[in-house]
């Protein structure tokens, strides 16, 4: 039977892999540790990671770290969980910052407080190295569970050549939704009924879509979820309704945004090829755009309707629960090294993510780099108005409850109000068992 | 006397061998021992990785954990009824049925056409056969990654060539009404060449003399196809239909790469639903229950088709 053959093959491979992982480490010699890392955006992150880890190993003869590529952010969560379940967790993982709460609820994270204390530092001193906006996703119930490694905010990318062509001044990018709508109208080109150039592209695929909804909702004065408690989301609120209505209007009323749900790579391809004149995308794609755009481009703050605000994106370094003490110590050494000002500055220059460590921006190399590439400054400047990334119990399904409905709206199959009511209902259902166990469990 | 001799044979056979039960068993075992030894490696793997895993799934399907902090609890068939009541599951089943029928019929039809057109061996048909078989060699994940860019709205290859002919450029993978069909295109493209092989093999078994006789009797190409070739190909059809149905349930690589079941679950298939329950919702009980249901359906289907095939044996 074909099904069982495929299943068998898969399990056989999994078995071999598991037994390879189970090989006992040499009693003598360096502590061997694995670092799981995802590649969530365009670019050549995997090669850069190899360079970084080699440098670490050369400088630390007592530790041998191996970087293991684990796919997207969602895939990395899955693979980490599978390894924890198998009893052989990796020593460190670059984990999407908004999965930390869910993992902490599932008892899958090592509380870093004691490691910080063992270094003779306080939690406040340790966290003080990082931009304040990033701390929300790293601290849960006053304990540190993650160390910010590479972070992002959404940006507005503008094709400056096309803007000039349309009589717009790219040095004065749109600051409000009204201005952006106006720009998008002027940047949309039509031949009869056909659109040959879109004014704006905003990605919507699982994962990206939720982040963009949080972005638009925040600039509309609202919030996506309860930052203090993992059991509540605010899908059916005026601020989110306004956000989704505007996105819907860009597509179905003004017709300046291509209909349907578009994944991130399609949006960046569209922008690079000149098919879309503006896009909202992560700063993580900045290096890719810089390397590939054959035109002058400009990055700007995400325009506001009510206030300037953006969610944090990107990833933190975590140590899974259930590790031997020596591996935990080695992982902590690696994490501190990777998040040091010099290394996080280097990584930021290589990828386009911003460096979470504030001192990174004072290193000479980084000062030079920013002088040459002022576009890398925007994300950092935007940090003043940045807030944590949505994180709830069962983050992925709760996020999909919203994304499924948003996709129907972008395809013109549902009205924003109906979609958000349905999304809220579905999310409440997903969150029900957690609330029953926590906020609704009354004395 | 030669007529009497055959009659003697059944008599001799009807005399039961006077052997002890144990001797009979060991005797039989001696004959089959090498066979069992040869099967042993596969049996070990099957027991460990297939039946063992199935047993585990069966047990897991009976348990449920309300929240991470709550203990694992025996719930009997609750997981099964929860899966059956889940609109995402029923949606995935419907999608899978559409997908199975919509990929099996065109790919089998194309495969037959290709096989009939390329039945003769010469330089041209060999080259064409190789070309049509090529998609089979490309891993599904690689093919999906390629098609991801072919399907890009406005800037993809597909829209580059046919976008101008359509009133509205479709967002192939971003529109819930189209996405499932877009995904089906890949499956058809990939499987037609594979099934062609079976039909080419089947065509070899069509007896030359019968064809020749039909030709001499004045049967045209259509008559020959209708009354000789297609009936001869019946076992091949049956086999290919089983393979195509199983493929429709077990192939989800492209869903994973291209749409992750979206937009709005329009391309969610049963296997992907199981994956989502297990790793996204972290709900092992429900995932196991859905796996049991799927396994049962597939086993029933396979048993049914094997019976149908067995019944056909001996017939023309």
From TrEMBL, chain A:
<keyword id="KW-0732">Signal</keyword>
<feature type="signal peptide">
    <location>
        <begin position="1"/>
        <end position="27"/>
    </location>
</feature>
<dbReference type="InterPro" id="IPR006059">
    <property type="entry name" value="SBP"/>
</dbReference>
<dbReference type="InterPro" id="IPR050490">
    <property type="entry name" value="Bact_solute-bd_prot1"/>
</dbReference>
<protein>
    <submittedName>
        <fullName>ABC transporter substrate-binding protein</fullName>
    </submittedName>
</protein>
<dbReference type="Pfam" id="PF13416">
    <property type="entry name" value="SBP_bac_8"/>
</dbReference>
<dbReference type="InterPro" id="IPR006311">
    <property type="entry name" value="TAT_signal"/>
</dbReference>
<keyword id="KW-0574">Periplasm</keyword>
<dbReference type="GO" id="GO:0042597">
    <property type="term" value="C:periplasmic space"/>
</dbReference>
<comment type="similarity">
    <text>Belongs to the bacterial solute-binding protein 1 family.</text>
</comment>
Automatic annotation (TrEMBL), chain B:
<feature type="transmembrane region" description="Helical">
    <location>
        <begin position="233"/>
        <end position="250"/>
    </location>
</feature>
<dbReference type="GO" id="GO:0055085">
    <property type="term" value="P:transmembrane transport"/>
</dbReference>
<comment type="similarity">
    <text>Belongs to the binding-protein-dependent transport system permease family.</text>
</comment>
<dbReference type="InterPro" id="IPR035906">
    <property type="entry name" value="MetI-like_sf"/>
</dbReference>
<dbReference type="InterPro" id="IPR050809">
    <property type="entry name" value="UgpAE/MalFG_permease"/>
</dbReference>
<dbReference type="GO" id="GO:0005886">
    <property type="term" value="C:plasma membrane"/>
</dbReference>
<feature type="domain" description="ABC transmembrane type-1">
    <location>
        <begin position="93"/>
        <end position="305"/>
    </location>
</feature>
<protein>
    <submittedName>
        <fullName>Sugar ABC transporter permease</fullName>
    </submittedName>
</protein>
<keyword id="KW-0813">Transport</keyword>
<keyword id="KW-1133">Transmembrane helix</keyword>
<feature type="transmembrane region" description="Helical">
    <location>
        <begin position="178"/>
        <end position="201"/>
    </location>
</feature>
<dbReference type="InterPro" id="IPR000515">
    <property type="entry name" value="MetI-like"/>
</dbReference>
<dbReference type="Pfam" id="PF00528">
    <property type="entry name" value="BPD_transp_1"/>
</dbReference>
<feature type="transmembrane region" description="Helical">
    <location>
        <begin position="33"/>
        <end position="54"/>
    </location>
</feature>
<feature type="transmembrane region" description="Helical">
    <location>
        <begin position="97"/>
        <end position="119"/>
    </location>
</feature>
<feature type="transmembrane region" description="Helical">
    <location>
        <begin position="287"/>
        <end position="306"/>
    </location>
</feature>
<feature type="transmembrane region" description="Helical">
    <location>
        <begin position="131"/>
        <end position="158"/>
    </location>
</feature>
<keyword id="KW-0472">Membrane</keyword>
<keyword id="KW-0812">Transmembrane</keyword>
<keyword id="KW-1003">Cell membrane</keyword>
């Amino acid at each position: 039977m074909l099904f069982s053959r495929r299943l068998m093959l898969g399990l056989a491979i999994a078995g071999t892999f598991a037994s390879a992982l189970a090989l006992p480490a040499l009693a003598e010699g360096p502590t061997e540790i694995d670092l799981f890392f995802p590649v969530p955006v365009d670019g050549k992150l995997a090669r850069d990671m190899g360079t970084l880890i080699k440098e670490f190993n050369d400088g630390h003869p007592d530790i041998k770290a191996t970087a293991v590529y684990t796919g997207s952010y969602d895939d990395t969560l899955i693979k980490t969980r599978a390894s924890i379940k198998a009893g052989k967790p990796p020593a460190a993982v670059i984990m999407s910052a908004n999965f930390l709460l869910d993992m902490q609820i599932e008892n899958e994270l090592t509380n870093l407080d004691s490691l910080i204390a063992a270094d003779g530092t306080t939690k406040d001193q340790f966290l003080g190295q990082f931009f304040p906006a990033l701390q929300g996703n790293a601290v849960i119930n006053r304990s540190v569970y993650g160390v910010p490694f590479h972070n992002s905010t959404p940006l507005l990318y503008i094709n400056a050549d096309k803007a000039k062509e349309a009589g717009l001044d790219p040095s004065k990018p749109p600051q409000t939704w009204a201005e952006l709508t106006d720009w998008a109208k002027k940047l949309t080109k039509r031949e009869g009924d056909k659109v040959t150039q879109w004014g704006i592209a905003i990605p919507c695929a699982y994962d990206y879509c939720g982040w963009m909804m949080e972005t638009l909702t925040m600039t509309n004065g609202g919030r996506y979820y309860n930052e203090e408690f993992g059991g509540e989301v605010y899908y059916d609120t005026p601020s989110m309704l306004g956000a989704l209505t505007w996105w819907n209007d860009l597509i179905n009323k003004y017709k300046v945004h291509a209909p349907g749900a578009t994944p991130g790579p399609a949006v960046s391809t569209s922008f690079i090829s000149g098919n879309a004149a503006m896009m909202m995308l992560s700063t993580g794609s900045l290096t890719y755009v810089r390397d590939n755009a054959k035109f002058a481009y400009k990055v700007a703050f995400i325009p506001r309707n009510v206030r300037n605000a953006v969610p944090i994106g990107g990833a933190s370094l975590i140590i899974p629960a259930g590790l031997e003490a020596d591996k935990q110590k080695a992982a902590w050494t690696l994490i501190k090294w990777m998040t040091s000002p010099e290394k996080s500055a280097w990584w930021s220059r290589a990828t386009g993510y911003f460096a979470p460590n504030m001192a990174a921006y004072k290193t000479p190399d980084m000062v030079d780099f920013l002088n040459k590439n002022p576009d890398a400054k925007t994300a950092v400047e935007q940090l003043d108005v940045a807030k944590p990334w949505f994180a709830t119990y069962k983050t992925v399904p709760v996020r999909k409850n919203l994304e499924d409905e948003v996709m129907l709206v972008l395809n013109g199959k549902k009205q924003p109000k109906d979609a958000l009511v349905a999304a809220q209902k579905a999310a409440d259902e997903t969150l029900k068992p957690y609330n029953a166990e926590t906020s609704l469990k009354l004395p | 006397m030669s007529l009497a001799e055959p009659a003697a044979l059944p008599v001799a056979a009807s005399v039961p061998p006077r052997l002890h039960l144990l001797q009979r068993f060991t005797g039989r075992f001696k004959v089959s021992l090498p066979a069992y030894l040869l099967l042993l490696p596969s049996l070990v793997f099957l027991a460990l990785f297939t039946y063992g895993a199935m047993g585990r799934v069966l047990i897991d399907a009976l348990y449920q954990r309300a929240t991470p902090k709550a203990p694992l609890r025996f719930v009997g068939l609750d997981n099964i009824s929860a899966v059956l009541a889940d609109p995402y599951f029923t949606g995935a089943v419907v999608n899978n049925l559409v997908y199975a029928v919509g990929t099996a019929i065109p790919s089998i039809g194309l495969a037959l056409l290709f096989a009939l057109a390329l039945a003769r061996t010469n330089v041209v048909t060999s080259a064409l056969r190789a070309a049509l078989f090529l998609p089979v060699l490309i891993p599904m994940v690689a093919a999906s990654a390629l098609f991801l860019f072919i399907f890009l709205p406005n800037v993809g290859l597909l829209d580059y060539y046919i976008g101008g002919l359509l009133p509205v450029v479709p967002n192939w993978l971003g529109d819930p009404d189209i996405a499932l069909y877009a995904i089906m295109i890949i499956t058809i493209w990939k499987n037609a060449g594979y099934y062609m092989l079976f039909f080419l093999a089947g065509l070899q078994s069509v007896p030359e003399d019968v064809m020749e006789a039909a030709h001499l009797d004045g049967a045209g190409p259509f008559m020959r196809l209708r009354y000789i070739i297609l009936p001869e190909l019946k076992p091949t059809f049956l086999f290919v239909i089983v393979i195509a149905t199983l493929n429709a349930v077990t192939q989800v690589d492209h869903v994973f790469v291209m749409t992750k079941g979206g937009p709005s679950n329009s391309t969610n298939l049963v296997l992907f639903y199981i994956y989502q329950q297990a790793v996204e919702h972290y709900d092992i009980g429900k995932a196991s229950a859905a796996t049991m249901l799927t396994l049962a359906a597939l086993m029933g289907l396979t048993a049914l088709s094997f019976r149908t095939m067995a019944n056909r044996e001996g017939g023309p």
